[in-house]
Design a protein that fits this description.
The structure holds 2 protein chains of 2 kinds. Chain A is of the alpha/beta class. Helices cover 33% and strands 26% of the residues of chain A. Chain A has 3 domains: 235 residues, Rossmann fold (3-Layer(aba) Sandwich), CATH 3.40.50; 189 residues, P-loop containing nucleotide triphosphate hydrolases (Rossmann fold), CATH 3.40.50.300; 72 residues, no CATH class. In chain A, a hairpin with a 2-residue loop joins strand 4 and strand 5. In chain A, 47% of the residues are buried. Chain B is mainly α. Chain B contains 14 helices and no strands. The radius of gyration of chain B is 21 Å and the shape is globular. The chains are: A alpha/beta, B mainly alpha. The interface between A and B is medium-sized, with 31 and 24 residues.
């Protein structure tokens, strides 16, 4: 039986057609993967099915019956459950409270806690879910929070489960556990829509794959017949260029670019970076792997001068930069691609010209310290637009009018052109489509080959694995390992991400002579 | 050419919104007037003739617009930097006090008139600047909301001025008859710029301030820093801008300009300092700044509009007997609609700010 059938679904936002005439079916007990770049329309499609954005056109059939879904409540009552990319949990509530939230029919007007906990615990046993029902959600690790979300959907009687990029926040081990759960649900006859942009994952878990591109279905294939190259082409409309890291000269002279010694950083009262030591050398990309929220952001902010650090030392080219102003640190040779381009990296209400001088407006030739040299700034921006192929109406367009990838290019152009010694890049490809990702990776590698030191932080393990010369893994504010990428497996890195410490640390780059 | 188009496009929305706000205000005011038994068309006509009907009327309109324009510019500077200076009234009095004190110091010297005027205005500028810098400092060093502190400091300054000028006060006029300072000497007065009217050089100063503010905001790194901090302080910080310093200097500059308005008022219009020198200029100027979309050119026109409403509604009260309270209602409506519509335009920014504030648990 078909659990779900979508017929000719179309959704427009103004001029943008987010979903264009999409049709597909989902069988009972099937895992259907939906693959596509960012902005391909995956999330819009799911929001349509879940009643969050009502489609302009098209039909939704559930269990062979046409249904109207105008709000999530309709969807839930029809047995559709959704696990969003960003969890919809109340952090200060317990697991049980989150599960029954909004379910008046279950709890009645007056909450009987004992009764509820009993029922929920027995519900959990049914799924071998061993989280105490009275634990607060905020105290749970991300992987478990996600499972609470899944439980929440099942508790509401979901037969069709939509998982929107569920693995984006998980370690490789947690991903495996998630897959075990998905398979179990599948055996029970539940149908699952698994959204992702990672090819390997999709191949592992799904029976069929639907590829979306620019809002249209570019193909539906059986997973067993799927070929990665073909999938990639369906996804981005062209072949992927295999990235190649340039071999480095073994006699290369290497200097210490960034030296971090016994650095401790606090977030409020909590110590989030706990006395860590590492060094970034020239001609090197030091990748930092770790699940989000393990001290990476605070580490970067401490290096960039945006956050006070407690103990320890930070040396940039043998110059102390700890406790110094952002301006001083930048003058000493730091460039920084921040985690969130809209929150830190750009001023979206400024034009591209104004954004291009955000970090260097006090320097020549952009100003003499008092008067801005309009001609020089415009010329600089035009050059960047041309050199980095930034798609924009003009250099006077507002940054907010650009797509994410082009916004990121504006930042990268600005930062790289400051000719830094050290480039700190945090999630430089977050939310970008494959083409833009490729481009940014090339930029980073080019900087490495020019002799810069690069500290690259990312939650995409694959990105870290392909780009880094050495990989440093962080967990709970500590370094659990520094390794060479060709000497470890993803699983080993996953273990380090989960907190298992490695004895031998790769303190030095593999090739080259330290001077 | 392209740039021009973009600028035009950007401002088109502002212009349209302002225009709609004005129409709405007039419509609602008409309803009220009809309910009160007056003919709104006649009323509006008498406002226009009252404000522009004669040489004197026009001069009066410009005269009324002068302090509003200068303070409006002061407020625009602060608002651009997300420093919500609500205390321009106090800074205006601080400046007026500065000008009055400095006139007392210099009036017996034989300095040429323009030097005395210049020194008085500089003092006004500095006094206002200090009064604006305090809330700025409190915000950047202590995190105290400048909205609250600047309003509180307004009360402090008003009471201080009252103490100084009332009978027996240190700078009250010697006869001790009225609560005001002695009239300033002729050489300290701003010259008239239009024969047989009271319009003085303060209006030119106001236009000059508008030009200066425009150049500052568009051409200098300081202006860039103010705007960057105002639009997104996190990005500004990331870009190496010292946000605390920008906040203090923005507030100081805003206060200084408002203070200059006080100086101009004393030297040009009132010739003395007293309580009630400002009929709420510091607050009305917020509306002027918002109506002008924080844009110097816009503020010139919105200040003129308010000057016109002010002058014209007095005339309306006199000529057709509509109580001036109704004129006040009209002004209040303009204010209300302008502020209301400005929310529409800055929706994004305000929402963001609110969200950020809400996250600080």
């Amino acid at each position: 039986m078909k659990a779900l059938e979508i017929k000719n679904l179309t959704k427009k936002f103004g001029k943008l057609v987010a979903n264009d005439d999409i049709s597909f079916t989902l069988d009972c007990g099937e895992v259907l993967a939906i693959l596509g770049e960012n902005g391909a329309g995956k999330t819009t499609l799911m929001r349509g099915i879940y009643g969050m954005d009502v489609p302009d056109n098209g039909q939704i059939w559930i269990r062979e019956k046409q249904e109207e879904i105008t709000c999530p409540k309709d969807a839930i009552s029809l047995g559709i459950g959704m696990v969003h990319q960003h969890f919809m949990l109340v952090n200060n509530f317990t697991v049980a409270e989150n599960l029954v939230l909004g379910m008046k029919e279950f709890t009645g007007q007056v909450l009987n806690r004992k009764e509820i906990y009993k029922k929920i615990n027995s519900f959990f046993q049914q799924y071998n879910f061993d989280v105490p029902a009275d634990a607060k959600v905020k105290d749970l690790p991300v992987g478990l929070q996600q499972r609470v979300e899944i439980m929440k959907a099942l508790f509401r009687g979901a037969q069709i489960l939509v998982l929107d990029e569920p693995t984006a926040v998980l370690t490789p081990q947690e991903t495996k556990e998630l897959f075990t759960i998905i398979r179990k649900l599948q055996k029970e006859g539940k149908s699952i829509i698994f959204i992702s942009h990672k090819l390997e994952e999709v191949k592992e878990i799904s029976q069929r794959i639907m590829v979306l591109r620019l809002g249209k279905v570019s193909g539906i294939v059986d997973t067993k017949d799927a070929d990665e190259a073909i999938m990639a082409r369906m996804m981005i409309g062209r072949d992927l260029v295999a990235m190649k890291k340039k071999e480095l000269d073994p006699d290369l002279k290497r200097e210490k670019v960034l030296e971090v010694k016994n650095l401790t950083v606090k977030d409020g009262k909590k110590t989030v970076v706990k006395g860590i030591d590492f060094t970034v050398y020239s001609n090197e990309i030091l990748g930092v792997a770790g699940v989000d929220g393990n001290g990476q952001l605070e580490l970067v902010e401490a290096i960039a001068g945006l956050r006070k650090s407690e103990d320890g030392r930070i040396l940039l080219k043998n110059r102390n930069i700890k406790g110094k102003s952002v301006k001083f640190i930048r003058k000493s040779g730091l460039a920084h691609i921040p985690e969130d381009r809209r929150v830190r990296g750009l001023i979206t209400g400024f034009s591209l010209v104004d954004n291009s001088i955000l970090t260097n407006h006090d320097n020549k030739p952009f100003s003499n310290g008092i008067i801005i040299n309009r001609k020089a700034t415009v010329e600089f921006t035009k050059n960047n637009i041309c050199k980095y192929n930034i798609k924009t109406e003009s250099e006077n367009a507002l940054a907010s009018s650009l797509s994410g990838g082009n916004q990121q290019k504006v930042i990268i152009a600005r930062e790289i052109s400051s000719k830094p010694e050290l480039l700190v890049a945090m999630k430089p490809t977050r939310g970008l489509d494959v083409g833009a990702v490729e481009y940014i990776h090339c930029c980073l590698l080019a900087e490495r080959d020019k002799g810069k030191g690069i500290l690259l932080l990312s939650s995409e393990l694959e990105e870290i694995m392909t780009l880094s010369d050495r990989i440093m893994v962080m967990h709970g504010g500590e370094i659990t390992g520094i390794v060479y990428p060709d000497e470890v497996t993803t699983e080993e890195i996953g273990l380090m991400m989960a907190g298992v410490k490695r004895e031998k640390m790769a303190k030095l780059p593999k090739e080259g002579v330290i001077v | 050419m392209k740039k021009m188009r973009i600028i035009l496009k950007k401002n088109m929305k502002s212009l349209m919104l302002t225009f709609i706000a004005l129409i709405c205000a007039l419509l609602v005011a008409s309803v009220i007037m009809v309910l009160a038994g007056y003919n709104p068309l006649q009323a509006y006509q008498s406002i226009v003739t009252g404000a522009f009907g004669s040489r004197n009327a026009i001069a009066q309109t410009f005269l009324k617009a002068t302090p509003l324009m200068i303070i409006g510019l002061a407020i625009a500077v602060a608002f651009k930097g997300s420093a919500f200076n609500i205390g321009a009234e106090g800074q205006f009095y601080a400046g007026a006090l500065g000008a009055a004190l400095s006139e007392m110091y210099f009036h017996e010297t034989a300095l040429p008139s323009f030097i005395i005027i210049f020194l008085c205005l500089v003092t006004a500028f500095v006094f206002g600047g200090i009064w604006g810098a305090i809330p700025g400092y409190l915000r950047s060093a202590r995190g105290a909301s400048e909205v609250v502190t600047s309003v509180m400091l307004t009360s402090v300054m008003l009471l201080f001025v009252r103490y100084l000028v009332t009978q027996g006060g240190p700078i009250a006029e010697p006869r001790g008859f009225y609560p005001e300072t002695q009239e300033i000497v002729e050489s300290a007065r701003l010259p008239y710029i239009w024969e047989n009217t009271r319009l003085h050089a303060g209006f030119i100063i106001a236009l000059f301030v508008a030009l200066a503010v425009y150049l500052l905001m568009e051409k200098t790194t300081w202006g860039y820093k103010i705007k960057a901090t105002g639009l997104n302080s996190l990005s500004a910080e990331y870009g190496g801008i010292n946000i605390g310093l920008v906040t203090v200097t923005t507030m100081a500059l805003s206060g200084a300009i408002a203070g200059l308005a006080g100086g101009v008022e004393v030297l040009g219009t009132s010739w003395k300092l007293y309580m009630g020198l400002s009929p709420g200029y510091g607050y009305n100027a917020i509306a002027v700044a918002l109506l002008g979309r924080l844009n110097p050119v816009g503020i010139i026109f919105s200040a003129l509009l308010f000057g016109m409403l002010n002058t014209g509604s007095n005339q309306m009260a006199r000529s057709i007997g509509i109580p001036s309270t109704l004129a006040a209602v009209l002004q209040a409506l303009v204010l209300l609609f302008v502020v209301g519509f400005s929310v529409l335009e800055n929706k994004e920014i305000i929402l963001k700010k609110w969200k950020r504030g809400g996250n600080n648990e």
